[in-house]
Write a structure and sequence with these properties.
Alpha-D-Glucose-1,6-Bisphosphate, Chain A, domain 4, six-stranded antiparallel β-sheet
């Protein structure tokens, strides 16, 4: 009986101790950071067209021109997803792996292949939907020679986004003028 009381007191004390360690919620949990806002600005462009379907057709063509295969397209939701596989080998990693094998005899895995994904979402803007917002995100997953994921990241390089939107702007212009 005394042992049971001690056990209850210990459990309660541990519970109170853990509860005392909890953090208070952030003051503004739904407010985006300045980095998030900058990233969203980089990923989004606005087009003066209400024709979302035609814009999605241009998006698909641009992704294919950039080497992506269209994996999914839901025009009713304004969504296009594409991917492409690339070699992820880096000379520096290979040199280090060779040195490690030569000096220690131990095998060191190196990056082998990567999958790049592009997700594009469109949405009407304005009271009458006279404009369309296009947001694209690029992600990358890298596997090593042992088949393990070594990197999974969103691409933050502005060059990816500039290239995509420059190509999309040209495609939209050519399609609008039936060139």
């Amino acid at each position: 009986m005394l042992a049971a009381r001690k056990a209850v007191v210990v459990v309660l004390a541990l519970g109170l101790g853990v509860a005392g360690c909890s953090q208070s919620p952030p003051k503004h949990p739904l407010q985006l950071s300045s980095e998030s806002l900058e990233q969203r600005r980089l990923q989004t462009r606005y087009f003066d067209t209400p024709d979302e379907l035609r814009l999605l057709t241009s998006v698909s063509a641009v992704l294919q021109d950039l080497g992506f295969t269209i994996d999914d397209s839901e025009t009713g939701f304004g969504l296009v997803v594409g991917s492409k596989q690339r070699d992820a080998s880096e000379v520096g990693q290979i040199v280090v792996a060779i040195l490690v094998v030569a000096l220690t005899g131990a095998w060191m895995p190196t990056d082998d292949k990567q999958l790049m994904r592009a997700s594009v979402v469109t949405r009407p803007i304005g009271d009458r939907g006279e404009r369309t917002a296009v947001r694209v995100t690029f992600q990358r997953i890298v596997w090593n020679t042992e088949g393990r994921v070594t990197h999974a990241e969103s691409m933050a390089d502005p060059a990816f986004y500039r290239e995509f939107f420059a190509s999309l702007s040209k495609a939209v212009f050519l399609q609008a003028h039936t060139i």
